[in-house]
């Protein structure tokens, strides 16, 4: 999935360490003015990353068509997770993959890839996330993993499908490059979710009206929980997305659909998308690729999680 804004701002990945913070997010049109609107909770003004997770869009449930033209990515992994609907993924390494609810589509951009996403008009509900790749992995070969059958961790009053990393002693088969967790958790009753104390965590309600850490967490905002927790009390009935990971300490630049390390690198990525062949060609999409927006007049600065 793409950041389709035509006047994108520099996405500065930095954050402090409050123990609890509600991030409201903002609305972004996805796939053109006639398509759906997503709620983007990462990156935000005060909260830029949760572990290596650096981008969170939630959309639906909404009846809409999705058509995101071919566009480039570098230095990240994209995670597509659906609750309803179907999305057709095409990419420049030759993948053609239909994504359905409960299935993980994990695209590793590495040194460079392009892809498109399409869906006919139907009810769509899901999340799109990005994971920043660390220095030693950000130039890996691009590729796609599709995991249709993910493992489940169970405890009193909860069931968690482990999308990325490990949760509750259960590990996903998906490839990761930093210690992290991503899980869809269904709660019905009073539950205590196990957490890794060395990770920072955040929770997003996907549906229902659960109580998280003592307060109702409505659909929409992201609840950041900081580090140092070994468990998280949740009650009521609902479906949650839990993300977390070891704090990402490298300085990075996020702009448009690129994750890099300097203004010059982002500038080179943009030029390559406009004029070169690094990102390959997506075949089968009926339409033109996305045009790269103009770079901002100010220099893009690499930044850490703490200002």
Automatic annotation (TrEMBL):
<dbReference type="Pfam" id="PF02678">
    <property type="entry name" value="Pirin"/>
</dbReference>
<feature type="domain" description="Pirin N-terminal">
    <location>
        <begin position="39"/>
        <end position="131"/>
    </location>
</feature>
<dbReference type="InterPro" id="IPR008778">
    <property type="entry name" value="Pirin_C_dom"/>
</dbReference>
<dbReference type="GO" id="GO:0046872">
    <property type="term" value="F:metal ion binding"/>
</dbReference>
<dbReference type="InterPro" id="IPR014710">
    <property type="entry name" value="RmlC-like_jellyroll"/>
</dbReference>
<dbReference type="Pfam" id="PF05726">
    <property type="entry name" value="Pirin_C"/>
</dbReference>
<feature type="binding site">
    <location>
        <position position="115"/>
    </location>
    <ligand>
        <name>Fe cation</name>
    </ligand>
</feature>
<keyword id="KW-0479">Metal-binding</keyword>
<protein>
    <recommendedName>
        <fullName>Pirin</fullName>
    </recommendedName>
</protein>
<dbReference type="InterPro" id="IPR003829">
    <property type="entry name" value="Pirin_N_dom"/>
</dbReference>
<feature type="binding site">
    <location>
        <position position="117"/>
    </location>
    <ligand>
        <name>Fe cation</name>
    </ligand>
</feature>
<feature type="binding site">
    <location>
        <position position="71"/>
    </location>
    <ligand>
        <name>Fe cation</name>
    </ligand>
</feature>
<feature type="binding site">
    <location>
        <position position="73"/>
    </location>
    <ligand>
        <name>Fe cation</name>
    </ligand>
</feature>
<keyword id="KW-0408">Iron</keyword>
<dbReference type="InterPro" id="IPR011051">
    <property type="entry name" value="RmlC_Cupin_sf"/>
</dbReference>
<dbReference type="InterPro" id="IPR012093">
    <property type="entry name" value="Pirin"/>
</dbReference>
<comment type="similarity">
    <text>Belongs to the pirin family.</text>
</comment>
<feature type="domain" description="Pirin C-terminal">
    <location>
        <begin position="191"/>
        <end position="277"/>
    </location>
</feature>
